[in-house]
Amino acid sequence: MAKNRELPGHILVLRLSAMGDAAMLPHALRAFKDAYPQVKVTVASRPAFEPFFRDTDTDFLPVDLKNRHRGIKGIIKLSDDIINMGIDALADEHDVLRSIILRTLLRMRGVKVAVIDKQRREKKRLARLHAAGAPFLKHTVIRYCDTLRKLGFEFPDPKPAVKKHRPDPLSDGTAATKVGFAPFSAHQGKTCPEPLRSQITELLSKRFDRVYIHSGGGSEADFAREMEQRYPNVTAVFGKTKGLGEEMDLISNLDCMISMDSMAMHIASLTATPVVSLWGATHPVFGFFGYGCDKEGMVRVGLDCSPCSVYGNKKCIYGDYRCLSSIKAEDVMEKVEKLMTHSTQTI
Predict the structure, then answer these.
(1) Are the CB atoms for 168 and 249 separated by under 8 Å?
(2) 345 pLDDT exceeds 60?
(3) What one-character DSSP code corresponds to residue 233?
(4) Do residues 52 and 22 touch, judged by C-beta distance below 8 A?
(5) Contact in structure between 35 and 155 (CB atoms under 8 Å)
(6) Above 50 in pLDDT, residue 165?
């Protein structure tokens, strides 16, 4: 591939949140660096997200939104930090008010800027029409790639991630079939309800050697610990792994991840772990499906009222989130069995 001498030599790629969106960015960076290994890339994101980018051959700029980079003065300091690094191009993969101000400051100082097209109108229209049968919008990963292409680069879309050996932080040294279950999300429209999540946990514990419940703190951790006490082969992950890096290592050693439309699905896609994903208020049509994941792993009840939300933050018009409560635990298990069999046959 011919390389244009006028192409940027050092790109800052900006994506500050949310965690699941940041977890999709490494796919695009991997494809870019395969085509342009000589171009320096620095990722600017929240410090906690750095483990996502450890295999992308990129540098990392932690953006401290609570202290140094907080508010307007903080954005000005961030622009100074970026200029001092010798950046000559910005790929704004976020396109929110903070990044708009930042890219304006950088443009004024001669930095070339490209901005992601989030297809916001198209997403809202599909949610309003409950258009589950509509053609899928462009995947977020491909839109990340397109932003880099706006800077003048040409490269193919990423291939799915490949499995890499990583140490298992919770291994007991015995051979076992391991599955993970991540029933939670930031929004109720993407959270596995009770009693469904208890039913799924029970069936997983009966079928597989080790079951890991992934959660945040508070009531989520309480549920995971309750399942851990109820079933001897279930482990509550919260507090047992050191940060995001070790949780990624754990997920990379699973035979299957059962996840909502959430961060766990995207981490699994980064580590080439098969995913069974449960969908309620949202839908893969919006372009948020785990990149490279098998669509056969998708579990969804086709209701006329869904999808109703792009991000799962919209209140259910019926108040019961029937799009999720109507899912049957047995159907989830059938998908897990089928996907794991298929994964074993293709390895």
Answers:
(1) yes
(2) no
(3) T
(4) yes
(5) yes
(6) yes
